[in-house]
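Lab notebook, bench 4. Still working through the backlog of constructs that have no structural model yet. Next entry is a single chain of 392 residues. Request: give me the structure tokens for it.
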Amino acid sequence: MKLLIMDWPGFGSETIKKLLPRMGVDTEIFDFPQNSADIRNGEELGVEIAKRLLECNADAVFSFNYFPVVATAAHACRKKYISWVYDSPAMLLYSMTVFFPENYIFHFDSSEAARLIRDGAEHVFYLPLAGNTESYDKMIPDAAIHRKYDADIAMIGSMYREDRFRIFKKFENFDDYLKGYLEGLIAAQQELYGVDILEPALNDDIMKKVLKYVPLVTNRGDGYETAAWTFANYYLAMQVTTREREMLLKALSESYDVALYTPGDTSYIKKVRNLGCVDYYSEAPYAMKCAKINLNITLRSIHTGIPLRAMDIMACGGFLMSNYQADLAEAFVPGEDFVYYESIPDAVEKAGYYLAHEDERKTIAENGYRKVKEFHSMRRKFGQIFEAAGLK
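Model written out:
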């Protein structure tokens, strides 16, 4: 089997490039301009991909996440296009190209996979992400690493206050009714796990008001996303998440040592130690291994899926405390492989309990690790992908 791989600096890309040849797959690398505007329907890029696909005589093309320009090239060449989606929200999946018969789309969120199937896309599969235990097992923290990364509780992730999220500034311009409505919606969603109320609450009247202040660009040539979906998943979901992360980290730091790995200033959470960004491959695994409790606060646009961060924590042998996610509770046993919290007070209480009960904490972390190693390894997942796509 030969694969043309769209190579871009996504999490896990380096692992895949090393793993597939060890699995006997002949690979050719295409330097994919993921940040280019051409990834949706760039004609020149599409021709370049198609030409390369035919020249190397690949059986299929593969990418982490879905890109319409790749789907178009594969469709033109009558070659299979395998995409494994790990991001949310994924606007590029609201493209008419998803209906091409050459697509084999594997999505980490079961609700989004179900949505694609309902929309009529062929060859769509729910596939949880993988944990790279093969590499993480080799990363054993020494005394110096422990001094650098030890913490009662740690979280790696964005607070969504960076400049690229300046859209939130537009909230200040909303009229009193709209501001009150959205603030109430955000507050209600913060209290609810396992159910999304954001998009359903954005009726036509509300969206007409929103669009006066926020000029959303939708349906970019080949798309069928709605303004309500875009506003709910790109803006409101991030607002819910940033507030939840701030509130929970503040509450936990009142009683425990909390390390946060994130870009930007977090002085507004005074007792949290912001240690800046960590490299995904060389540093983040050590941070997860050295924390007694690893916190996952899921971006609210991930409706049911297991975030990659949660899978990585367990793959590192770390103790995972997460908000409730339906797919996580289906693939792993709560209280046995990981722990989930139902509210901020519940998270504070559970953190205290598991910090005080080391044996239970270590047993749960070991159970999660073993389950990832057995059922959710990168090697196993690619075996499932190739089988579903009819490749050998």
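Notes after review: The longest helix spans residues 227-253. The radius of gyration is 21 Å. Flag for follow-up if needed.
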